[in-house]
């Protein structure tokens, strides 16, 4: 019985250990380094220790059996490597890098678009405020225009009255000028008459002084010898 219990416990522990091991997830690395040889075969000298996976290269020819290919890279490396490592599409790692680069560009573009959207929203808010201000100004102008229309109804009558009053003022001014001229003429005439009267009075005094004594009879002088 004890052995059976011990065996059962060991089996349970083994199953638990196996379960734990099954939960340990790992990934195989996609990085490979392919050596480049001077000829189409493993016996030829290695001219490059290894090109990393994803290296872009140009295939110039392949061996007769199709196992080897003569290639060259943009960095100037030339030689032979196994054709089995060549593929027409970029490996997953390169695609992942491109996808990450694209995602990074999209994030930057998204941020730029969000900034532009925020700026546009701010401009929209400013425009809304300006529209509200413009509507208020328009309402005020409309009210003032209505008042001006009410006032303009009396404008024609006021203009007519103003012209009539102006004409009357001009007529009164003309009459005043005429009266002033007549007054000046009368003053001049009065001054001339007073001068003539004064001259006549002086002349009359001179005449009286000269003539009247001659009209009286002269007394005879008494002679002291009589």
Poorly predicted runs of 5 or more residues: 15-29
Using only C-alpha atoms, the radius of gyration works out to 68 Å
The structure class reads: alpha+beta
What does the overall shape look like?
rod-shaped
Helix and strand sequence = HEEEEEHH
Please describe the biggest sheet, giving its number of strands, its sense, and whether it closes into a barrel.
3 strands, antiparallel
Give the N-terminus to C-terminus distance in angstroms: 229 Å
Number of helices: 3
Instruction: Give the overall pLDDT as a whole number.
Output: 77
Quick rundown:
This protein is of the alpha+beta class.
Architecture blueprint of SSEs:
Blueprint: H1 2-22, E1 33-37, E2 46-52, E3 57-62, E4 68-73, E5 78-82, H2 92-152, H3 155-215
Antiparallel strand pairs: 1-2, 3-4, 4-5
Tell me what you see in this structure.
With 226 residues, this protein is of the alpha+beta class. Helices cover 63% and strands 13% of the residues. It contains three helices and five strands; from the N terminus they run H-E-E-E-E-E-H-H. It has helices at residues 2-22, 92-152, 155-215, and strands at 33-37, 46-52, 57-62, 68-73, 78-82. The protein is rod-shaped. The N and C termini lie far apart (229 Å). Mean pLDDT is 77; it is low at 15-29.
């Amino acid at each position: 019985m004890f052995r059976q219990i011990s065996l059962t416990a060991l089996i349970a522990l083994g199953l638990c250990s196996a379960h734990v091991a099954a939960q340990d997830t790992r990934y195989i690395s996609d990085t490979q380094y392919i050596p480049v040889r001077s000829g189409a075969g493993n016996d030829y000298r290695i001219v490059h220790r290894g090109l990393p996976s994803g290296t872009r290269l140009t295939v110039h020819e392949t061996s007769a059996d199709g196992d080897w290919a003569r290639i060259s890279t943009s960095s100037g490396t030339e030689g032979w490597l196994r054709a089995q490592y060549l593929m027409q599409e970029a490996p997953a790692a390169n695609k992942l890098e491109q996808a990450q680069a694209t995602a990074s560009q999209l994030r930057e573009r998204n941020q730029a678009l969000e900034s532009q959207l925020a700026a546009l929203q701010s401009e929209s808010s400013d425009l809304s405020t300006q529209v509200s201000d413009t509507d208020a100004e328009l309402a005020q102008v409309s009210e003032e225009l209505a008042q001006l229309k009410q006032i303009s109804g009396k404008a024609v009558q006021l203009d007519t009255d103003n012209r009539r009053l102006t004409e009357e003022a001009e007529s009164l001014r003309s009459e005043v000028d005429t009266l002033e001229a007549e007054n000046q003429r009368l003053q001049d005439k009065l001054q001339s008459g007073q001068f003539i009267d004064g001259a006549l009075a002086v002349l009359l005094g001179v005449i009286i002084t000269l003539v009247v004594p001659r009209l009286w009879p002269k007394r005879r002088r008494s002679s002291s010898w009589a």
